[in-house]
Design a protein that fits this description.
The complex is a heterodimer. By secondary structure, chain A is mainly alpha-helical. Chain A has one domain. The longest helix of chain A is centred in the C-terminal third of the chain and has 27 residues. The C terminus of chain A is likely disordered. Chain B is an alpha/beta fold. Chain B folds into two domains: about 160 residues, Rossmann fold; about 70 residues, no CATH class. In chain B, the strands form two sheets. In chain B, strands 6-7-8-3-9-10 form a six-stranded mixed sheet, with helices on both faces. In chain B, strands 2-1-4-5 form a four-stranded antiparallel sheet, with helices on one face. In chain B, strand 9 and strand 10 form a beta hairpin. Chain B is globular, with a radius of gyration of 18 Å. The two termini of chain B are about 30 Å apart. Classes of the chains: A mainly alpha, B alpha/beta. The interface between A and B is large, with 38 and 46 residues.
Amino acid sequence: MHQQKLLSSRSLILVAVMLAALAIFPTMVSRYYIYLVALMLVTGLLATSLNMVLGFGGMYQFNHAVFYGVGAYAAALLTVRGGVNPWWGYLLGPVVAAALSLLMGLICVRLSKLYFGMLQISLGSLVWAVVFRWYSFTGGDDGMHGVPVPPLISSIDGAYYFVLIVTVVCLAVMYLIVNSPFGRVFESIRDNPERAEAIGVNVRLHQLIGLVIAGFFGGVAGTLFVTVEGSVFPDMLFWTLSLEIIIMCLLGGWFTFLGPMLGGGMVVALRAVVGIYTDYWTMVLGIILMLLIFFLPQGVLGFFTARLGRGQAAGEGD
Amino acid sequence: MLRVQNLRKSFGPFLAVSDANLTVAQGEIVAVIGPNGAGKTTLFKLITGQLKPDQGQVVFKGQDIAGLSPHRVCRRGLSLSYQVVSVFPRMSVFENVRVAVLARRRQVLRLFTPAVRLAGKETWEILQNVGLSDKAEVISGTLSHGDSKVLEMAIALGNRPELLIMDEPTAGMSPEETRATMGLIRRLNGDMGITILFCEHDMELVFNLAQRIMVMRQGTTIAQGTCDEVRCDENVQQAYLGGHGNA
């Protein structure tokens, strides 16, 4: 009657091959590339977490970097100022991000579309300003450097594998959520919130839960960034980064599950390459965005899934 | 089952519904008729919670539901099928209905069970019942108008309502589609025991289908009764049927 499986066998093989490649990758390349791929994974996870609400919930979350930054800062502050074990920092960072997301969500969720996004930006800027100015606590515009990382994952290889494992686990959990009843209903809210309400869905509660989930995984990405870089800085919360994350989702394909992962990886790689030649990275990003809107409105992965004749495989994520 | 009393709603200075009264008994098919702008759609939106009434009562199964939010109204067993097609356009026909079934079963907050394992059988039965099973995988935004209207109804049925309210169910349909829809409405009422309240401009359909009719004019109920009573009512003849009693 209908497919009862979450992943087709073809996608499973594809995923297995990709994982194997990522697992043996560090044995073959220099430290720099290991670092770069780790950063791609972190950024991809960040973009995927935004896409939970952007692509699957239709919510214009314009301040997603705040949860990334707050997750990272929470982990760093707990470790450095609170003196707790770094592992606890990793665990609590995302929880703090999720709690902030809940708080902001409670304020914003009654607003729709653009108004929601505008209020999110202003609340996010508020958090950024606090982090930026509170020198005695957050280190102000210098950020914090040399954040202790557990010995097990302090080498670049260790950090890479840690990032890889956590990212894969998070992606798996988010994939489950997207394909759960919660995810289906979230998509229906994206398509038509009035009708969703009329069939008995508590739309605001649903959106609020979606925001908390997105904030949590954004926070996870933040703590992974601490693992890779060993430092945090206020730019991580700034609205320009939020915008960049949105572009990653659009670039990869915001109606596909893995699109944002791809988009995040592409932006990080491009920035590394372009950075060799010019300081004007944002200009290049602007041009990419223009080309994207004109030629690939569905994003790269969206374009290819359409080409493969699977048309609207949105949400199937394979 | 449903009793609407002295319902009133204004939008600024404009009085959309000034004094609406209506009763629907269990198992009935009741039609609301009236010229354009009489307030039929507003009345339905007031009943289902999309709009909050300024005053008056909406009593459903003995409880006043006026002013409750739409999802609460829906959970009490009252579903609306829209006049203007209102589906989930990026999702497949099957998922459109599945979502409604999940909502009724209160499974929407499940985070880690794959949705493909839930509500499949019931969704399939609904699609077969309304005749959309061959289009289950079609993205609903690409359906023809007639099919979209049927999907509208299928979504409402996913809620397994006790009272189904339909706002112009056959508007814009071809004659064949209209006939099929009439048959469907009869089946829903006869076989599944769903009480039906609808409004429609097609008088032939109204007099064929409805057991009782309520007539609205400028936001006010001017008559309610059986088809014959309404047909003979003087007010109705003047206001609506243009004096041709047996139209």
